[in-house]
Fold each of these.
Amino acid sequence: MVSGNQTPVMEFIFLGFSGMPRAHVFLFFIFLAIYLVILTGNTTIVTLIQLDSRLHSPMYFFLSHLSCLDVCYSSVTVPKILANFVSQKPTISYNQCMAQMFFLMTFAGSECALLAVMAYDRYAAICQPLRYSHLMNSQVRVSLATFSWLWGFLNSSIHTTLATNLSFCGANQIDHIFCDVPPLLKIACSDTYVNEMVLHTATIFVGLSPFLLVVISYVYILSAILRIRSNTGRRKAFSTCTSHVVVVIIYFGMANLNYNRPSAGYSLEIDTLISTLYCIITPMLNPLIYSFRNKEVKNALWKALGLNSKEFTSPRKQ
């Protein structure tokens, strides 16, 4: 919003990669390659889950939603970053900036909630095996997935509504590579107290609360696994959780660096690196982690390609 004689800001300029203009062509192809890996990997996982009946379980149902979120999440930021690499001026219009921020926070918040839901699914499978089919019936898992998407939508709606009421007084240079709440608050000339309080509150409810639910779930899971007497049973139970644990550590770790680092003490280059890790590396790693660590996904892939999975998984006999 603009008041008095203030000049309305029609566009913002990203400063994220401004210090390395000679590397833009190289970075363009690096980002493009990573984006293609994100699209290919996550689309492949969704397709395999739809086609292979062995993957029609609650765990893979939630994994398909995670892959959809990763595609949407990266598609909000990466195409614009690629366009700015080949343009004379890395800009984004005001309306596009607000839209980018809205969808970015929607998908990021939804992924936080979905990771907590996936932890609950593992808890139900390992700690309540006799009731698992009831606890995770089709109606329950659809409701939990829907809640995850709505959770992110509600969070982003509040932040975007508050952001549209900010004044920028002609300041339009953003120390970032995409539109997000913290960098916009830094250049706003109007009072940002409410925005900052809402951001801190959202960090607790949208970020910290799902993470704590994940931790609590795995405390119960670990306790149940340690009570399993056979080593084979313990290894099998651990194997169903390993991929999810790795994804949780990477995602929440990157999110914490992106949103909770000090406002001072980091250079623009470090900020850019952290933002890059947050917006493209995590979505790229998720399908790789689940495909390499999960025998069922690999077997489904070999089947889809018309290959015999035993040729790749069975040890050689002397």
Note: The domain at 11-306 is CATH 1.20.1070.10 (Rhopdopsin 7-helix transmembrane proteins).
Amino acid sequence: MQIYLDYSATTPTRPEAIAAMQQALTEQWGNPSSLHAWGQRAATALERARVQVARLINAPSEAIVFTSGGTEADNLAILGVARQYTTPQHLIISSVEHSAIAESVRWLEQWGWQVTRLPVDRQGRVHPLDLKTALRANTVLVSIIYGQSEVGTLQPIATLGAIARDHGALFHTDAVQVAGRLPLDVQQLPVDLLSISSHKIYGPQGAGALYIRSGVELVPLISGGGQEAGLRSGTQAVATIAGFGVAAELAAQEMGTETPRLVTLRDRLFEQLKDVPGLLPTGDRWNRLPHHVSFCLQDADGDSLNGKALVRQMNLAGIGISAGAACRSGKVTPSPVLQAMGYSDRVAKSGIRLTLGRDTTEADIDWTAMVLKQVLERSRLQFALSRL
């Protein structure tokens, strides 16, 4: 039995998106910037996709800029704002951001930017009062991830965005894990910039989008022919974007039934694993992504009984999950997200994540719970024997 439970890493491209890509590759392959019929067929496909993606978050289509993925969208938001200033300013992020944000901000620090990283509680949540306290006269941007990919916690984005807006700072959120799983309405949310990704919603890899509120100015990261309203030069990948558009449209249509189904499966898995000794749920149990389950090990060894080892053991059993800790040169290093949440370095090496999707069934959940219990028992026994 093969069970894939790593939908937060990527999702299989759905057949309808593949069909749209095939049509674009065979019938709409022109350069969408060209004025002739071939180019205009491609331009029509491109703009259709822009409308489809915009509708997923209730945005005007002209507010959507296509990118190569969520990482580029995050980079464009952070660096596109920062590059407007000739002298370094102040920006605020959380301590549990995706690396696409964290690394961009770290680069800005090397150029003199002042950065505040907001702390989180044991559940990984930012406290709105901490944001209020951190704001300064020269704070130009606040970026807080909406749904944390490693521990599943949802941030109070509406509250945080309102605080930033009242102060006069721009507000960006990385909504890559939220889009297509929970309703997003940028007409109601106080956000100026919002990132989403195709391959998290059953579209192809290699496409993403940044929503930019009307009136917000960015400096492009890529110069050239001025495509995407001058913000992302280069001939657009029409076929990939067409697949993204179809995936976004279907995600919007199916969310009303799929999201409750995922919540039920998520809670079923948590329930079946709640009494496993030493297995600690991570993240906010209720303010949580609907498809996301995560744990760490209270009795983790750090070197042999850790998240990476569990991923390998589960993979041998035919189940695909992921770990939060990084592995460099064969040595496991602690998860920065779990560290920020107050876990020790030893425990922060033991995080695992199981994320559910369209093909996940109750039988998959039940089998996975049983296998994980067996893997943990065997791993602990092997660890104990190694200490004799």
Note: Residues 95 and 119 are 6 Å apart (CA to CA).
Amino acid sequence: MVNLDPLQTTSYHYELPAELIATHPIHPRDHARLLVYNRTDRSITHTRFDALESFLPKNCGIIFNDTKVIKARIYGKKESGGAIELLINRPHDAHAINVYIKGRVKEGTLLHFDEELSARVIKLHDDGSREVNFYHRDSLIRFEELLPILERVGHIPLPPYLGREDNSEDEREYQSVFAHYEGAVAAPTASLHFTDELYAAVCSAHPHAFVTLHVGSGTFKPVEAKIITDHPMHSEYFDISPSTQVLIHSDIPLLSIGTTPTRTVEYHVRTQETQGEANLFLHPNNPPKRINHLLTNFHLPQSTLLMLVASFVGLEETHRIYKEAIDEKYRFFSYGDAMLIL
């Protein structure tokens, strides 16, 4: 490592052998490996995910993200006949939907999909995203009316680094067993390791609550600025129920199941907002204030998610943990293995 300045983006680079990228889920879900890192003595323990409960502090509460992944990728054609691929990112309002489109388009371009679904480009953004209105049988439709159509014509939006098309297995496996509210275009991946049985066991042993954060495709956006604080952090819709607020504002330690509930809770603690758009960027110079423990997967180099991990354990320890995970041949990224930070 050339530089270990926590504000330098290059400090978060590491080399990952391509064969350690998990391209398919493991069966059963809770047979993924689990690296347990204890901040008190900096110890690392290697175990399996189904042993999770034996490592959890007895008095901790647990925060889950109950967002549900939608079939956000659709394939269609322009009126000219040219093929296009559209990835829904997030609704801007009931009718204006922020998307990414593979294929050249301009304002006014009309795109056609199966089942008499169409979309008209209404705005081009500097970040490469597009704003569109969707129509069904030529009638303008709202985002919630679009969702059941996507369920029939769309595809699971697998992360680009998986390097493959989605299949029927992904419809089951790229979704948590407690997914409820539709809107995410990427799974909260730490959640994917829970079976129904393990989820029930953990919930019976700990106070628990849910936030909803609809994960956007911005979660995969690499940090391109040289200084991490110059990175324009993406925002995502969140909602925190009154019962969840009670747990957040209690005095018991909290375990977050993933980076997305972490950012949601920490955004709420800083702003007191309970619904809206969260864009909090956690890193070593902006560490968590409320979340005590983190369960997460292994993340992309130079990503905001890796920087969030470093906000818990520091940059040097992040590199040490990741080096050991690579040496031990853990599986990385969305379908990969997990890490528990205590």
Note: The CA atoms of residues 71 and 156 lie 5 Å apart.
